[in-house]
Design a protein that fits this description.
The complex is a heterodimer of chains A (about 600) and B (about 260).
Chain A lengths: L5 E8 L3 H12 L5 E5 L15 E2 L5 E3 L9 E3 L10 H11 L6 H20 L14 E2 L9 E2 L5 H15 L3 E4 L1 E9 L2 E9 L5 E11 L20 H8 L4 E2 L4 E8 L9 H4 L3 E3 L20 H13 L11 E4 L5 H7 L1 H11 L8 E10 L2 E3 L5 E3 L6 E7 L4 E2 L11 H22 L11 H14 L4 E2 H15 L3 E2 L1 H18 L2 E2 L9 H25 L8 E2 L7 H4 L1 E6 L7 E6 L15
Parallel strand pairs in A: 1-2, 1-11, 2-8, 11-19, 17-20, 21-23, 22-24
Antiparallel strand pairs in A: 3-7, 4-5, 6-7, 9-10, 10-11, 12-17, 12-25, 13-16, 14-15, 15-16, 18-19, 25-26
Chain B lengths: L8 E8 L9 E8 L6 H11 L19 E4 L2 E4 L5 H4 L5 E5 L6 E3 L2 E2 L2 H9 L19 H5 L2 H4 L12 H5 L6 H12 L6 H8 L13 H5 L6 H13 L1 H12 L10
Parallel strand pairs in B: 1-5
Antiparallel strand pairs in B: 1-2, 3-4, 3-5, 6-7
Helix pairs in contact in B: 3-7, 7-8, 7-10, 8-10, 8-11
Classes of the chains: A alpha/beta (about 600), B alpha+beta (about 260).
């Protein structure tokens, strides 16, 4: 065994909900040697920033009888009939996805939601409660019943801490502040990864019988984003570079309520609890766009509506780029009990207390519907026929199963990461316990990656990495954002090509080996330039509007041509090779319909 | 990098140290434009991106939930992501940023948190649920959940730990962060080993090590109160057996609806 080589049965990259569930389950199933590596400490993972809730038809609350569907909520008394069902959750998710979600996977997610939620609770997750002690639920956009199970407005935080604690309890090994640089795949068999130990600067080949990527989304490619600095889509880009296809990358969700100029998330729970959106005339403008659901229409629709108001001159703040979020009528007690974190954020970052002031917000890049193509066990596929990449799994935002299709419903992301992280954990345990061998690695992948770092460090170039990253974010925001058209997308593509060329001339300032975050920023920028090209390529070819992909030159959904998943393979330097995969649809139960709210 | 004179600027003094090349830490001054609404973290980013890429610090979420960016700003621990730069400047327009105290420095503003995480592990941060598991959820009253609020929102940023003078003296002390986590578990009606936990915390490195200096409360960016949690644990440790009996009794009814009062 060469120096610096590390071996585990199962190796997981990313320690958010998906990765931690997979690790915990595999360890609990008896796989002895499970390791997780993460570029930041596991408890810093971005799952912890999720606020409003996790979906599941638990049937704990209902609108008070006689108050209509939007009335105040009460616990469902013992013995009274349920109002929610798995089927209804499935339908809402399919409709939210604009029929691009795979219906078999959606059924699995909504069915297993119930059990995952009770498992979280029994592992110690501190949920908010109904008066009789059940898990509390609230309304959320695009869901026809109150099924967002929550812990105040820090739901992701309590879920992340709970699952990390359980992974520790089951003796999972953690490599904290290790950066995965490369995925080793030969003959369609995954053999491990190459990773950089950030502290020492040493590069290791890490071999494993099974590898899972739970590396999160790619919202950092946009100027205004709710995403953490860490969400640079590393795993997605690394897999793509290793020949693994990416699916539906053009679908990027813009959340309607990012804090004005900062992009920081103001939870959808603000509207779930009854908050309003107002334009500069103090009109509840959603009346024009979604008369029934109003502010609780799905995110793609609400963000487009906000952008229309802004584009037509009815925005707020000095530059007219904002919208008001009005929570004042909820009252102090409800805000303190249900929305304490968003209140603090508004006070800390824009100096407004939502109890008595209007909070300026704007759409913010939030969630990546696309990602590494997998089946419902997290098994990564190599092509549109579903050929498995042996030993390689993905889950959570990095993966595309697809359960969110063209637009994800709020609270379905914590659910997706949990359900499919857990399923992938069981699948990997079966794979390893079924006798999967440790596969040999040819050549010296660590050495190749040492060369890559050396090139980064030795580049005498004149460009600063951050300037290139900023220019990428500007073009993605202006030309591949909420509204798209051919002209802008072509501009985005040519600018990305130019930025990729400039990147070859990028200089890294920190030349040391110890904890070199400057080198990390360079590798991350490289990854963003890689996947952004795939986003734009898919968006350019898809001549329709569906969910979050809104083409002003093709404003209608086109099921005859485009009820298909985009599958993108790397094709040398020529840009991605695109092929298309049918959507799994149960035509009897959930046939495509017009999507109205 | 100098500015063009049209924007006000801030002087950012940062403690620099790379143990591989430097004999001891030193302060370095940078100048950044003072943008409306910018934070101390924004200033660090501006410096790293355009002036000195070797400046090293941790950060991720930028809204006080991930716990990465606790640092020592003008002599006080805080999360730099939510510290307004303008408010941190002295009369000469300067702010001074150092790494968290009492911990070994890895590089610049990045500290070695090994002892911090070891103590977190030592208190067994996970819940130990009872063996009889209900079909659905364990029932907890809103009041029982409310009693945990002082601990459940802890983000493990380390601001309290590295402001604690006892930690400055000995890393054997469990520390305010891990005691707060222990409090969360002890107080949770679903936890079935509160007695064992209280016995573990009762030793010389546990709850009696706290000298109620209250630095942890001042440092906590989430407005939590570790001192009060430690006081509570102390009291419970003194009547441990009664507390255990009450827990056993409570757990007999964990699958039953909470009755309206």
């Amino acid at each position: 065994m060469p120096d610096n080589e590390i071996v585990h049965d199962i190796l997981i990259v990313g320690a958010g909900l998906a990765g931690s569930w997979a690790a915990m389950v595999a360890a609990k199933e008896g796989v002895r040697d499970v390791a997780v590596l993460s570029k930041i400490h596991p408890l810093r993972s971005h799952s912890g920033a999720a606020q409003g809730g996790i979906a599941g038809a638990l049937n704990n609350v209902r609108p008070v009888a006689g108050t209509g569907p939007d009335g105040p909520l009460e616990q469902i008394p013992a013995g009274e009939p349920p109002i929610d069902s798995v089927d209804l959750h499935v339908f809402d998710t399919i409709k939210g996805s604009d029929w691009l979600g795979d219906q078999d996977a959606i059924e699995i997610m909504c069915r297993e939601a119930i059990d995952v939620l009770y498992e979280y609770e029994r592992m110690g997750c501190v949920f908010s409660r109904t008066p009789d002690g059940r898990i509390a639920q609230r309304r959320f956009g695009g869901h026809s019943t109150p099924r967002a199970n929550f812990a105040a407005d820090w739901t992701g935080h309590v879920l992340l801490h709970t699952i990390h604690e359980q992974a520790l309890r089951h003796n999972v090994t953690f490599y904290s502040e290790w950066y995965c640089m490369d995925l080793i795949v030969e003959d369609n068999i995954c053999r491990g990864v190459v990773a950089l130990d950030v502290l020492s600067g040493k590069i290791h080949t890490m071999r494993a019988k099974a590898v899972l990527f739970g590396t999160g989304g790619y919202g950092r490619a946009y100027k205004i984003t709710s995403n953490a600095f860490a969400n640079t889509g590393d795993g997605v880009a690394i897999a793509y570079n290793a020949g693994i296809p990416l699916m539906d990358m053009e679908f990027v969700q813009f959340h309607p309520t990012g804090l004005y100029r900062h992009g920081i998330l103001m939870s959808e729970a603000c509207r779930g609890e009854g908050g309003y959106l107002l334009n500069n005339k103090h009109e509840r403008f959603m009346e024009r766009y979604a008369k029934d659901k109003m502010e609780l229409a799905p995110r793609d629709l609400v963000s487009r509506s906000e952008q229309r108001e802004i584009d037509e001159g009815r925005g707020v703040e000095a530059d007219g780029q904002g919208i008001w979020l009005d929570l004042r009528h909820l009252g102090r007690e409800k805000i303190m009990q249900r929305l304490p974190q968003v209140r603090e954020i508004a006070i800390d970052f824009v100096g407004v207390d939502p109890i008595d002031g209007l909070v300026p917000i704007q759409p913010t890049a939030h969630y990546s519907m696309g990602g590494i193509a997998t089946d419902a066990d997290g098994q990564v596929i190599a092509d549109v026929d579903g050929t498995p990449v042996v030993g390689f799994y993905a889950a959570g935002e990095a993966a595309c199963i697809s359960v969110h299709g063209a637009n994800r419903l709020g609270t379905n992301s914590l659910l997706d990461a949990s359900v499919f992280g857990r399923r992938a954990g069981y699948a990997m345990a079966r794979f390893v316990q079924g006798g999967a061998p440790l596969q040999p690695v040819s050549g010296d992948p660590a050495q190749r990656n040492r060369q890559r770092i050396k090139q980064v460090l030795d580049n005498p170039g004149t460009e600063l990495v951050e300037d290139i990253a900023q220019d990428l974010k500007t073009t993605m925001t202006n030309n591949c954002g909420i509204f798209r058209d051919e002209e802008r997308l072509r501009k985005a593509m040519s600018e990305i090509k130019a930025l990729q060329a400039r990147f070859k001339n990028a200089r890294t300032m920190d030349k040391s080996s110890r904890f070199n975050t400057d080198v990390l920023a360079t590798l991350e920028a490289d990854h963003m330039l890689t996947f952004s090209e795939v986003i734009v390529a898919g968006a350019l070819v898809r001549q329709e509007s569906r969910g979050a992909h809104s083409r002003t030159d093709f404003p209608r959904r086109d099921d005859d041509q485009w009820l298909v998943h985009t599958v993108a393979h790397k094709n040398g330097d020529d840009g991605p090779r695109l092929s298309y995969k049918p959507v799994t649809i149960n035509y009897e139960k959930y046939p495509p319909q017009e999507r109205k709210y | 990098m100098s500015n063009n004179g049209t924007h006000p600027t801030a002087i950012v003094r940062i403690q620099r140290f790379n143990p591989e090349t430097d004999k001891k830490p030193h302060l370095q001054e940078f100048e950044v434009e003072l943008q409306p609404g910018s934070t101390v973290l924004d200033a660090l980013h501006e410096i790293k991106s355009h002036q000195d890429g070797s400046l090293t610090f941790r950060r991720s979420c930028r809204h006080a939930i991930c716990g990465s960016c606790a640092m020592h700003v003008n002599g006080k621990n805080e999360l730099v992501c939510k510290a307004p730069l303008k408010d941190r400047l002295d009369r000469k327009g300067r702010v001074t940023i150092r790494p968290l105290p009492y911990l070994p420095i890895i590089k610049d503003l990045v500290v070695d948190r090994t002892s911090f995480w070891e103590q977190y592990l030592r208190v067994k941060p996970w819940l130990a649920p009872p063996e009889n598991v209900p079909e659905k959820e364990f029932r907890m009253s809103p009041e029982e959940v409310g009693a945990l609020r002082n601990a459940e929102t802890c983000i493990m940023c380390g601001a309290c730990y590295s402001s604690c003078q006892i930690i400055g003296l000995t890393k054997e002390y469990i520390g305010p962060h891990a005691l707060l986590k222990a409090f969360l578990r002890v107080m949770d009606p679903r936890d079935s080993i509160p007695g064992e936990r209280l016995a573990d915390l009762d030793g010389a490195d546990g709850v009696y090590r706290c000298r109620t200096i209250f630095n942890c409360i001042d440092a906590c960016p989430k407005n939590l109160n570790p001192t009060q949690a430690i006081e509570t644990l102390r009291k419970l440790a003194q009547k441990r057996e009664a507390f255990e009996r009450a827990r056993v009794e409570r757990q007999k009814h964990l699958d039953e609806p909470i009755l309206a009062r």
